[in-house]
Amino acid sequence: MGLMQSLTSLASGAGHALRLHSRDNRLAPVLSSELDRTLGVGQDWMPLTYGEYYPRSALVYAAVKLRQDSVARVPLKVFRRGNGDPRPASLGVRDQGLGSLGARAVDSAEPVGKDHPAQRLLDAPNPFWTRSDLWRATETYLGLWGSAFWGLERDQAGQVVEIWPLRSDRMRVVPDPDRYVKGFVFVGQGQQLVPYVPEDVVWIKYFNPLDEYAGLSPIAPLRLSADMGMDALRANRHLLMNDSTPGLIIETTDAPTDAEVQSFYERWESRFRGVQKTRRPALLSPGMKASNLGFSPRDMEYIQSLRWSLEDIARVYGVPKVMMGDLERTTFSNFQTARRVFWEDTISSQLAFYQEKVQHMLLPNFGDPSLFVEFDLSQVQALRESENDLASRRQQYVSSGIMTVDEVRQEMNLPPLGGGSPDS
């Protein structure tokens, strides 16, 4: 029985129990139980509740959305190494002269063009999803569950023609003692089971030291902080709904009658209520004294809970707080610096991670070992040098002999002077 037939039989539930043994020196437990446990492993690390943080926690949503928007805007291009070039394909991020963003492609590499099957697939994964849709879904699934899966669809000739992102919490990994992975099972609507052979799935996951068959979700270490922020918001909402604490206390030496109290409120609201009358000076009658209650310890605890939640979520997702709306003590300079650090430290490394996965798990389907992929960051404004920094760098390169004047002029699309110096 072939692998697909085995998985189909497994998914059909024909009273069949599969005994799975862990490989030597592996962390996966020995699985020997009924069908619902033999569909695969990893679901304990990908519960539905992790996905619910995205629509329920404003901070988690902001961090994941910022990352997915950033990843989705960078095109992934397919290149082919030149004939006779013994060097391996680069797995760095193509910077096209931006300087410090990793390895460049080999000099003899050329883009394959938009009509190549691999490039066409990455640009239009399926009839309903765009390139950016695919990467938004991938980054979101990875940011919520620590794993992302692409299901590959083939034509009659066996060529990959479509990519479908599969919801992570519905995927099950079926271990194998010899092949490491026997296959995957997707639990669809109505609990319909869809089996996949390993070759038809691109499996992207964060390393999990506790389970090799499951990615480690960023939500796992964040749950307490995210819950604390949401609990603080809920508690404050209920407090505001039920609170009767006044913001201002007026003390008087005499005991006013109900009519006097009503008259006081009417006159007070007519003079101070509304946007146009905010902070208008008040004049109290003799014997009256006003006291502002200010923030209570409970109010300060609420504010601190939100800040702790923000800091932890920003830290785990690698997003500077200022980019999530924390504009306290923000200047144009440090905001620009935060954007550049976010792209250099967080997004560039994430793109290199994706690059390696696509290189290893998708490109072999096209039968050309000279193909490789690179993300093109040349249009990312946050990574562009300012004119002053660029001029200073070029001057230093010429002074130290790293570049000639003509090389600098070529970089600036200017004609050469000849001889490599201005005086030549």
Write out key terms for the chains shown.
single chain; 424 residues; 3 domains; three-stranded antiparallel beta sheet; 13 helices; 40% helix; disordered C terminus
Summarize the structure in words:
This protein has 13 helices and eleven strands. The protein is α+β, with helices and mostly antiparallel strands and 424 residues long. It has three domains: 219 residues, no CATH class; 93 residues, no CATH class; 39 residues, no CATH class. Strands 2-1-11 form a three-stranded antiparallel sheet. The protein has a three-stranded antiparallel sheet with strand order 4-3-8. Helix 5 packs antiparallel against helix 7. The longest helix has 30 residues. The radius of gyration is 30 Å and the shape is flat. The protein starts with a helix and ends in a 13-residue tail after the last helix.
Number of helical regions: 13
Main sheet attributes: strand count, strand direction, barrel closure: 3 strands, antiparallel
The pLDDT mean sits at: 77
Shape: flat
pLDDT below 50 for ≥5 consecutive residues: which ranges?
A: 13-37, 86-91, 95-106, 420-424
- Radius of gyration, rounded? 30 Å
Overall structural class, as computed from helix and strand content, comes to: alpha+beta
Kindly report the spatial arrangement of strands forming the biggest sheet.
Answer: 2-1-11
Order of helices and strands: HHHHHEEHHEEEEEEHEHEHHEHH
Domain module count? 3
- Residue fraction in strands: 5-15%
